[in-house]
Specification:
The chain is built from 14 helices and 18 strands. It is α/β, with parallel strands linked by helices. It has two domains: 102 residues, Urease, subunit C, domain 1; 270 residues, Metal-dependent hydrolases (TIM Barrel, Alpha-Beta Barrel), CATH 3.20.20.140. Strands 1, 2, 3, 4, 5, 16, 17 and 18 form an eight-stranded mixed beta sheet that branches. It binds zinc ion (2 copies). One zinc ion binds next to loops.
């Protein structure tokens, strides 16, 4: 990808999310996509002849946002149907969804089922306009688990890598080991497993636990061997606590966690990625978006508990990451997660979850979620200060003046 060679952002009030303060009158220098200097205006390096200048006077400059739970491939909520689409057609939709995410200020996304190395590569090479994609490939599910998308009467699911399904079915230690290795060999940043039932799956109970202890241990072992980690989809305390005890390092959703869960998160240094907006939207217009009636009936179980879980985790000192998990046309509501979280978290807590903590989870500290020398030049020039009111990020069209990704100004 051809980066603009050099960019200079002047008169910037830089939002330092680690300290929770605004650093006034800064100059940010960008060379070949990376931030090289953040200096007080008077002491910045000399202007280069071909340098592009962006005047941020009166604006707040903050790091680009990270969404820690997306499905770039899920342009429909009918995930079973998606599996039989042409992969090219699915990729075309993914390209549209990713561009929209970038336009909301998300410059990095963590895809936790569906995106493969191809989507990440297409963005990296500039073929698709979108956020950096940190992917895990296909999720691992047991037969009859959250990633088993077959109806009761069907016995076939095509797990071929080229099918745009978001998961594969594997049972037994050898099969899950191979499943994990298959994702890791494609360059996966994490391995996703289904630890409990879910909403969008046709045949499981939300309150079930999935995979045996031995199977979970095998996946954890494979991920650790590759210096990667396992993240697990789970709702109930029973499923979450079991996963954390078996070495799973991150939990997706966690709507129904208890105090014991909070203790385990803290003790093991594990991460929680709540995804609250998706339940609100599934309740309102899930069926219209292809969600089956039986799935729709499961939404209530997780909807109300989610906010309470976030409050409980935050209070207990759990490392919380921002996530959304929207499917189909509901993806347009991605930014509304900020509005929901602001009910129980301070602006700084929300901002950290969508920048520093998310970067830490992905082992990308210093590269994303921060404005510092050596980081990718992923920045938002804000009309409003999210440190005063983080819900301004729920209206990105008005609150974000300019989006910069990899040193390039994004055309909206
Ligand atoms: Zn999930
Ligand atoms: Zn998800």
């Amino acid at each position: 990808m051809s980066h603009h060679n050099s960019l200079r952002i002047i008169n910037a009030s830089v939002l330092d999310i680690a300290q929770g303060i605004i650093l006034a009158e800064r100059t940010i220098l960008v060379r070949d996509g990376l931030i090289t200097e953040v200096a007080e205006s008077s002491s910045a390096a000399e202007l280069l002849p071909d340098e592009e200048i962006l005047d941020a006077k009166g604006k707040i400059v903050m790091p680009g946002l990270i969404d820690g739970h997306v499905h770039t491939l899920a342009s429909t909520a009918d995930l079973g149907g998606l599996a039989s689409w042409s992969p090219n057609y699915a990729a075309a939709h993914a390209s549209r969804l990713m561009k929209d995410m970038l336009h909301r200020g998300f410059t990095t996304v963590r895809d936790v089922a569906g995106a493969d190395y191809g989507l990440a590569q297409a963005v990296e090479e500039g073929l698709f306009i979108g956020p950096r994609v940190v992917f895990g490939g296909k999720a691992l599910s047991q037969t009859g688990g959250h990633g088993d998308l077959r109806a009761r009467g069907s016995s076939f699911q095509d797990d071929h890598q080229c099918c745009p399904s978001i998961s594969i079915i594997c049972d037994g230690v050898d099969a899950v080991r191979k499943g994990a290795r298959d994702q890791l060999r494609t360059g996966a940043n994490h391995v996703k497993i289904m630890l409990s039932g879910g909403v969008a799956s046709p045949t499981d109970r939300v309150d079930s636990t999935q995979f045996s202890d031995e199977e979970i241990r095998a996946v954890v072992e494979e991920a650790h061997a590759a210096n990667r980690y396992v993240t697990g989809h789970a709702y109930t305390a029973r499923a979450v606590n079991r996963g954390l005890r078996l070495g799973v390092r991150c939990i997706e959703h966690g709507n129904n966690i208890d105090d014991e869960s909070v203790g385990l998160f803290v003790e093991t240094g594990s991460y929680l990625v709540p995804t609250l907006i998706t339940y609100e939207r599934l309740k309102i217009d899930g069926v219209k978006n292809g969600l089956s009636e039986s799935s729709h009936e499961k939404v209530d179980f997780v909807l109300n508990a989610g906010l309470e879980a976030l409050a409980r985790a935050t209070k207990g000192g759990v490392k919380v990451v921002f996530g959304t998990d929207l499917l189909g046309d509901m993806q347009q509501y991605q930014s509304e997660e900020f509005r929901i979280r602001a009910q129980v978290q301070t602006p700084l807590e929300v901002l950290r979850s969508a920048t520093l903590t998310a970067a830490e989870l992905m082992s990308m500290e210093g590269q994303v979620g921060v404005i510092a020398p050596g980081a990718f030049a992923d920045l938002l020039v804000m009309n409003e200060n999210p440190l005063d009111d983080v819900t301004v990020l729920s209206a990105p069209d008005t609150s974000i003046a300019v989006i910069v990704k990899g040193g390039v100004v994004v055309q909206r």
